[in-house]
Task: structure prediction
Amino acid sequence: MTKRMFYGLFKPAFEKAFSIANIMSAWSKTGLWPYDPPIVLDIFKQRPNTDIPLRIEARDPNEVKTPYTSKSIRHFQAQFAKNPSKLLQRKLFKANIYLAAEAQIATHRAEAFKRALVLEKKKRKKPKRLNLLGEEKSGLPQFYGLEEVRNAREFQARKAAREEQEKADKAAKKAKDAVDREEKKAREADEKAAKAEKRELDRQVAREAKAQAKIEAAEARKATTAAKKAEKASKKASKSSKSTQIIILKVGSTFLGSLGTEDKVEVEEIEDNEGVVPVTTRRGRKVELPVRLRI
Result:
C-alpha cells in the first residue's frame, strides 16, 4: 500500500467511525464521562477459585471432521451417501458457511489488487516535464539567447494554436453529435408514426374485410333460403299438377263390371273458374262426377 492508496481507504472508514454517537459511547464505556470508575474497576476484581478439576475428554478417532478441503469434501460426500444423518448435515452446513466466507474474502482481495495495479499504472504513466522549447529537462542549467527565446515563443504559439484547434474540434464534434442525436430522434419518431399509421391501416382493412365477409355470408344465407323456398314451391306446384286416378262406384250399378280388368278411370284435375271439371275414361267415355266430388 502506498501513500496514494492510503487516503482513499482511510477517508470512508474515518467518516463512518468518527461519529458523535461513537465518541459519546467511548467516553461512557470507559467511565470518564459521566464519571463512573466501577465500570472499569469491576473488570479487574479477582474471581473466587471454584477448584473445579479440569477434565480433558479424549477425542474419538472415528469422529467425522468438518470438511474444509477438496479431498475431505470428497470423503465426506461418500460417507454422507452411505449414512445421511443430522450430525453430518450440520457439519456440511458449517463447512459451506466457512468456505463461502473464504471465497468472498478472496474475491475482495482480488478486486483490491486489481485496483492497486490500476493506480500503480496511472502513477507510472506520469508525463515527463518539458522546458520552454518542448524538450525534456536534463537537470542541468539552461541558458536562453535571442534564438532560444524566439524558438520558445514560436513553440508556445504553436502549442496554444494546437490547444485551440483541439477545443474547436471537440466543440464541433459535440455539435455534430447533438445534430446526429436530434436526427436519430426525428427518424425514430417518423418510424414510430409510420408504424402506428400502418397498424391503424391494417386494422381498418381487417375491419372492412370482416364487415364484407359478414355481408357476403348474409347474402349467401339469403340466397340459400330463397333457393330452398323456390324448391319447396316448385315441389308443391308439381304435386298439385299431378293427375289423380279415381274409381267411381255406384250402389247397384254394373258400370265397373262392363269395364275390362285393365281399365281404369282417370280423373284429370284442371283449374277452372266455372267449377266444371270434365272427367273421361281411358277409352274416352265421358263421366259425370257427383257434386260432392267436384272441386
